[in-house]
Amino acid sequence: MESDCRDGMRSANLETFLWTVRLGSLSAAAEHLHLTQPAVTRRLQELERDLGVKLFRRSGRLVTPTNAAQALLPKVELVLREIAAMRATGQAVDEFRGRVRIGIAELIGLTWLDRLLTRIETTFPNLDVEIEVEVASGLVEGLKRRRLDVVFLPGKTTIDGVAQETIGSRSLRWIARPDLALPCGICSPDILREMPIILMPKGAEWYDLAMRWFATAGVQPRRVRTCNSVSVQTSLVRKGLGFGAMPVDLIHDELSNGSLVALPGLPTLPRVIYSVAYMMSDASPVMPQIVAIAKAESQFVDNIDVEE
After folding, report:
1. In sequence order, what are the beta bridge partners of 57?
2. Which of 105, 230, 104 is nearest to 175 (CA)?
3. What is the DSSP code string of 68-103?
4. Closest alpha carbon to 104 in 138, 144, 145, 132
């Protein structure tokens, strides 16, 4: 049964309005809400009758919110947050149902994702968890378009209305196979200019940090290859196809057995700060608890501002 707001206004209509504004089309809102497009249209028409104002202008399949709709949007977000909070009041943890779509950077998937999922599933046994692995730009876009509910990413997002916290950091080192190691042992930007470099693609925090490392020294690397998979990148470095900028804990075994080496460099590569972020306006009541679980389980949290 659909819940009602004051004056008989249905929260389902407010939710439909919210997603139509955010996604910019009736079909996209219908897909997100698992409705038919005529059902979305009926809800919006009912809301317009309740309010006595025109909320959208149509242009083909797209809809543009009117000035009245833009003014209404923050009030609708507030009302829906309060409704969600009221529904959650007094509800036992194991009664939370539904799904949460989590976006993660691959490094988290290769290190402590198993611990995170175990804690979430233990705490919320009736919550369905979906995982999507992406680079930072893809995670931000997924959060912005509400394709993802919460993201764990390198760096931070500047999207309006986001709640985010730092969950740790990792430092990067230049890694190579021993037979590619530089004779002098020092890995400076100028020395690496002509060397084959394997990096995450543009839009990834690791790529940006490495390229700024070169730019600070006034150097432009000439042989850069990109790969959007950390595990594949590691494999390419392991097979001797180039130098990679990566956290040493990801390749602890290879460093221990000598199949890969970390090269000291001046200036050193900056640390990568990792964050968790979600949209405050439509967050599930369980979201703050998921963030708390992530901070407790993160293997990065003890490494903030600590040199290795």
Report:
1. 64
2. 230
3. HHHHHHHHHHHHHHHHHHHHHTT--GGG--EEEEEE
4. 132
Q: What percent of the chain has pLDDT over 90?
A: 34
The per-residue pLDDT for 6 is 42
CA distance 291 to 154: 15
**Selection from 116, 164, 117 nearest residue 294 by Cα:** 116
pLDDT at 18: 86
pLDDT of residue 123: 87
Q: What is the pLDDT of residue 96?
A: 66
User: Dihedral of CA 184/189/191/195: which sign?
Assistant: positive
Closest to 241 measured CA to CA, from 204, 174, 172, 195: 195
d(C-alpha 210, C-alpha 38), whole Å: 50
What is d(CA 132, CA 113) in angstroms, rounded to the nearest whole number? 12
∠ CA 36-55-24, rounded to 5°: 55
* pLDDT one-digit tens code per residue, 111-158: 899 999 999 998 888 889 999 999 888 999 999 888 999 999 998 888
The CA angle 285-135-177, to the nearest 5 degrees, is: 135
Give the pLDDT confidence score for residue 280 in this predicted structure.
Answer: 78
**The pairing of beta strand 243-246 with beta strand 224-226:** unpaired
